[in-house]
Structure formats: structure tokens, C-alpha cells
Specification:
By secondary structure, the chain is of the alpha/beta class. Helices cover about 45% and strands about 20% of the residues. The protein starts with 14 loop residues before the first strand and ends with a helix.
Length: about 190
């Protein structure tokens, strides 16, 4: 009717899930799960994409479901899958982005950095995924993703262990998490 204004429909954000990383190198579970968590967090800081939560993503750990089925269950456009391994003092991350419908591998890449540069590795991964699914990263977000510092590998290891135990909700696990977090802070405040 005359005089009424209709708000434009909000553009639908592309959505994705980062599936739990595969462990092809007998890495400790806390390391692989922690890297998955960190990659989810790095992507979630980009406003132009909807990222499925860690809790929902971890539901698919060791799942034998096909990627289109997982995508349909979670209502996402893209699935990110990959693996992580440490080789000497380096971390290697292999990843691919799969469009769910029709199932198509859009992008596949391998990243490798010194263990001390693992934060830069995670942010490079997030930027590359955003680019692969055509998400515009703002200049502020680009600056934030580029501004990483080296981290003491032992501190990062303790941090990952703390996150691992922190995601378990028993009193004993939370005490362990606190101890690991304290160790991480002591090594690299």
C-alpha cells in the first residue's frame, strides 16, 4: 500500500562447517581437536560468513556420513575438511573446501609453518577459505588476520591441552585445564 516501506531482504551469508581435522600422524587428540577449534574461531571472526559452532562440528568426529548429508543436516553451503600433522618443528595443515550441492571440491591447499607461527597459519587458513567461497574480508579484518605474533610452542601446547580439558565438564577435567592454562601463561604471558 502507499506510504509503506518494505525493508530489503537481508543477504544470506554463505555458511560452512569445519569438520574435525583428521589425524594421520598419531598426534595427541588434544592437539588435533585444539587445531580444529582454533580454525573454527579464526573463521568465525570474519563477519561475512556463518560458521557452525564447535559443538555441532565435533558431533561429526570420526563420522562415516557423506559430506552432502552432513551439509544438509547442518544447513550449510560448504564443508571444510582437512588434516593436521607436526613434522619436527613445523605444523602442516591440509584442507579442502567442498561445495555441498552439487558436491564439488572448490579449493584444496596445504599450509606449513614453523610451530612458533601456528597463529599465522590459522589466520592464513581463514583468509584462504574466505577467498575460496568468495567472502569479502574487510580491511579491518585483513589487518587483524595479518597481525599475529610468534608464540612459544610449549605455551601453545599447554594452551591446547587446557582447551581440551576445558571442553570436558567434570571437576577433575576443569582442574587439569586450569593447570595447563597457568602453565601456558607462565611460558608466554
Amino acid at each position: 500500500t502507499a506510504g509503506e516501506t518494505v525493508a530489503p531482504a537481508a543477504a544470506k551469508l554463505p555458511s560452512l562447517v569445519v569438520l574435525p581435522l583428521s589425524n594421520f600422524a598419531d598426534e595427541p587428540e588434544y592437539f588435533v581437536d585444539g587445531m580444529t577449534d582454533s580454525l573454527i574461531s579464526a573463521l568465525a571472526r570474519i563477519q561475512g560468513v556463518r560458521v557452525i559452532s564447535r559443538q555441532s562440528a565435533m558431533h561429526y568426529k570420526d563420522s562415516k556420513k557423506l559430506l552432502p548429508e552432513i551439509a544438509k543436516e547442518l544447513g550449510v553451503d560448504f564443508v571444510v575438511e582437512g588434516s593436521v600433522a607436526r613434522i619436527a618443528d613445523r605444523v602442516r595443515l591440509n584442507a579442502q573446501v567442498v561445495q555441498a550441492d552439487p558436491e564439488t571440491t572448490l579449493w584444496s591447499e596445504s599450509f606449513e609453518r614453523a610451530t612458533a607461527d601456528v597463529l599465522a597459519l590459522q589466520n592464513t587458513f581463514a583468509s584462504a577459505i574466505a577467498s575460496a567461497i568468495h567472502v569479502q574480508v574487510s580491511p579491518v579484518e585483513q589487518s587483524r588476520l595479518a597481525a599475529t605474533k610468534s608464540i612459544d610452542p610449549d605455551a601453545y601446547e599447554a594452551y591446547l591441552q587446557g582447551r581440551y580439558y576445558g571442553n570436558q565438564f567434570s571437576e577433575e577435567a576443569l582442574r587439569k585445564a586450569q593447570g595447563y592454562f597457568e602453565r601456558a601463561v607462565a611460558k608466554d604471558p
